[in-house]
Structures
1.
Amino acid sequence: MFFIISLAVIGGKKGLKSIITLIITGFVVIKVLIPLIIQGFNPTLVSSLVCIFVIVVNLLIISGKNEKTLAAIIGTSGGVLIAGIIAVFSNFIIRVNGLTDEEMQSIIYTAQNANFDFSGLLFAGIIMGALGAVMDVSMSIASSIKEIGSAKPDMTVKELIKSGMNVGKDIMGTMANTLILAYAGGAMYIMIMVSAYSYSTSISTAIDQDIIAAEILKALAGSIGLVFAVPITAVVSAILVKSYSNKKG
């Protein structure tokens, strides 16, 4: 409650919009995503559709209907889906699910489905985990390009893309760290396991453990998706801003 009040008081109108988006996101995840996965729907497909819905609704509420929002939606969707594709492709090779036998048995019992798609569940966790950071990066770049385009309407698309990429490069490093640290914070017990395990064996052997490899895959896939969101957003935003400027002129 203190968090909501602080967000509303300090953030003002934007803070209230943020509260609305948080409520929508929480509702969709708890009341739509999780029940559909438990009922046996494909986690990969369900999480992809839910993420796209969350991206579109949240960005429209926060920034309204304009070229900046459209660019951020495309950039975020592209980055998140790339993260998911990398995760699926990588998991096709290494085949991990990131769960212990006890956790898998509990999920099978809860879902009443012996054919539960655990790899799909890993995919869902990766794109949901990457969503917030990628959305932040995409909106920052789209907003910067729109402001630059408004201040200097004579700039070309190429120049706007270059400016957007410069902004993206500055954001990229810190947001990649934010994403990895978020995964690390949520998997502190696994890092302790790696450290303890490495006393009796090599680091490479510790990484080969299913649950450890899954966490590394989450962090890498999410970070790569974030990196790709930068050029996608920069290109799309520059084209849309310049197109809108030409129509307005």
2.
Amino acid sequence: MSPIINISRTDDAPLLANVYLYFRCTDNPQSIDLNCALFTSPEVVVQDGQYGYQNLFDALLDALYAALEKAGAPNLNIAVSESGWSSEGGNAAAVGNAGTFYRNLINHVKQGTPRRSGRAIET
């Protein structure tokens, strides 16, 4: 990871990350609530120290921010270069769920994550 971090720093470029939630939900439907993945959970689902998470997207992205901090790159920006939801082929794969995910993702990224609140997520 260090060489990639160094290139991003040198070029003043964000680290590109793919964040797919659908696969995490279908791989473990007993542990991952669909509402958490679709940005529709009305309350905090996971508490990690001072950070509370209502959605899986923020939890995954903040895990990457935390890893970058430990790797010595606390100010490196992340750009979500790809995300998505399957519209067929699995338990939660449905056009309606895909539409919900995309609409809510577009609205959500403006506010940032709990770890980087108020900082829009380049997506």
3.
Amino acid sequence: MAKQFDVVVIGAGPGGYIAAIRAAQLGMSVACVDYWSTADGKPAPGGTCTNVGCIPSKALLQSSEHYEHAQKHLAEHGVKVEGVSLDIKQFLGRKDTVVKQNNDGILYLFKKNKVTFFHGKASFGAKVDAGWSVNVSGEQTEELVAKNVIVATGSSARALPGLDFDETQILSNDGALRLASVPKKLAVIGAGVIGLELGSVWRRLGAEVTILEGAPEFLATVDRDAAKEALKAFTKQGLTIHTGVKVGEIKKTAKKVTVPYTDAAGAEHKVEADKLIVSIGRVPNTEGLGAETIGLKLDERGFIVVDDDCATSLPGIWAVGDVVRGPMLAHKAEEEGVAVAERLAGQHPHVNFDTVPWVIYTSPEIAWVGQTEQQLKTAGRQYRSGSFPFLANGRARALGDTTGFVKVLADAKTDEVLGVHIVGPVASELIAEAVTIMEFRGAAEDIARICHAHPTLSEAMKEAALAVDTRALNF
């Protein structure tokens, strides 16, 4: 017999589990279905983000940074350490512990908010009198029925044509997070967020890392000043990055992977590596969903077609996160999930894509929100720019990390902040102030007039805002 709910959410990643919790908070009866499992078959909600994405990668980034600091940077603080070595089992084990804590945390939140969780694969059945039927296949087969269904099935790594992931030598983000030993040589195709972050992890642990990027410019969508600063820092650290390349036919043997490529000038080269990470984008998870069964409209790339409110082509079916248009970011998915739940309750939320922040968690971190200087020039928008280097920031000096800067772009007439770009320590945290200012359509002068604690890294934001009016005080 079918189990009836007000809302069924398919997928327990950031978009799905947050949508389920918010709908439950608003008084709806909610079920959430997710198929992720631990090695021993237990539920592992959280989607790609928690299991093989955001969370484990940040855990490894943190651990690898500690390792590199112990090797190279503690001495300058007067801390002498000898015989530093890597316990790869503990290194990966800590990551697994962090992931499990997040899995368990989501299950706890479901219980706390009275969300009924089903562990298994979900697919659409049919349109029924009470709404939509959803079939769950797992240890037990279930039929769920709900007036509203929210699809939050996320995305998967895109493979190169003719080169499937074996997660042993040809690695997606999943395999790159669980290498049992440090490769001597590591090749990465794609200099985006995943390629740079995972390349940084294994470079810190001793791998010789070469990153190949097809775009002619490094981080082409990032503000040019920020991208240049980051490239300079990564190159100094030891990452080898080639842009404007065309990769040829990749060959692998039991012990190595050979990646031939043509550089921007047309010269032919090849990289021989122990492992290859392929990070060339992601594809939406719609296979097996049963979209064709009910006539749910997908676009030519497999994304579920939605309007500005995340409503699909069928009444009562919604979709959020990586499986729909827009940036593939966990926090974007969360915002959409909350918005859909609130719309179902008759509220009128909104998601402003113009103030969705982006972060690359390398060292230095790169974070930005709003428009780049290049976009403003292309649009013919009159603007003023102000920058402040962390080299002139007292807290950054004390930390021993003065790489990078904060850059504020503001309208030339109104002073409204149009974009903020940060390269440097904890940029991921600093960008929140810029998001807040921009969401309220604040001015650079507003940032400049706010009292910032001293000494803090956040003072660089204040100084950059002052620099928009050419009156920085410490540079």
